[in-house]
Amino acid sequence: MIELWELRGQNDRRYSNFSWRTRMALRHKGLSVSVQPVLLTDKASIDFSGGKTVPVIRDGARVVRDSWQIAEYLEKQYPEQPSLFGGDTGKSLCQFVNTWVDRSVVPIAFQALAGDAILVQDPTDQPHFRATVEKFTGKSPEALKEAQGKTFERLLASVDPARALLKRQAFLGGDAPCYADYSLFSVFQWARIVSPLPLLPAGDALAAWFGRVLDLHDGHARDTPAFY
Ligand SMILES: N[C@@H](CCC(=O)N[C@@H](CS)C(=O)NCC(=O)O)C(=O)O
Prior knowledge:
Elements: E1 2-7, H1 17-28, E2 33-38, E3 56-59, E4 62-65, H2 67-77, H3 87-120, H4 126-137, H5 141-146, H6 148-158, H7 160-166, H8 179-194, H9 205-219
Parallel strand pairs: 1-2
Antiparallel strand pairs: 1-3, 3-4
């Protein structure tokens, strides 16, 4: 059985967006998982990985960290299970989407959600997170929360290329989901888990797609502590 290390917050909230990419990839592959929740500041528990971030997986003797590296590992190690990428061309395009999400979407989402995220974290983790937020944004979580309305607008505008595609097809992967769907999904799942203010307006093509991804794999992603 594969073990997955991910973050836990108050009331068992599993709020790591990168870990949701891995959770969905593992489900997509139909692999059994044993989840090991850790605190953001509990670096000792993931020391064996050689890094300081989650997700981390251990599959027998193999330890892999970084959500993209994990996706590549799963695709290579379990080729007989449903494909995450759909071949070499699909893999390149999934990597493009993953990088677009990391570089163009996550930085805005971080500003949009930091003010709420700190409130659902374990109190032990809050000073570390506050310092991270101030280092990367130059603002406090409370100041970011005050600007949340405007930042939500920027976030929704940043994902317009995905919206345009999802008006025409069910998933970024086409009729069925691929890893690109999980990359983008992780941002909206993060919002749903940490923020009481719904991010996607009803009627947005992304809202319908988000609902479809929540329903995948027996509603795996729906079935987690979240605000809506
Ligand atoms: N590129 C990494 C990023 C992982 C990452 O930044 N994870 C966050 C949680 S969502 C983390 O563990 N941060 C540690 C910290 O802030 O101390 C991946 O894709 O796995």
